[in-house]
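Let us work through a complete example step by step.
Step 1: write down the sequence.
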Amino acid sequence: MASINVGDEVPQGTFVYVPYTPELADGSACGIPSKISTDAWKGKKVLIFAVPGAFTPSCHANHAPPYLAKVDELKSKGVDVIAVLSANDPFVLSGWSRILGFGDKILALSDPETTWTSKLGLTVDLTGAGIGLGKRTTRFAILLDDLKVKYLGVEPDPTKVTVSGVESVLEKL
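Step 2: predict the structure and record it as tokens.
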């Protein structure tokens, strides 16, 4: 159950990601991981949609692509930063984001030990699934304005995309 609520300020967090560069486009480069902190989002409107895993069916086919398709609309409604968050390592997330065509439009942030998502109470233990997933970020969308939660949509079933989908977020902007 989420321990963060609309109106709360999110706790400080640091994520690992591989910044997009044109050299990554051909798939032969891996990139160099960097870190970004929630401190970088002070004074900004930030939209994060979280997925249990890159390349997993709902995440790959139903959750991420609609966000990419609506980047311009989200930006026109004042969103400064759009990011996908997962417990996958930054190299997997970088590869996944390149396959999906995120480029520099959507940041692919790694919370590999679910440190930040655990503070939010937004993890799911998929150890029993028998496919090596373990503890992950659950499926959710969170809209921040100057680090304060303006919208939080947590999926009751992390295999489905409803309240965490881009259409639900757009209704709240």
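Step 3: interpret the result. The longest helix spans residues 57-69.
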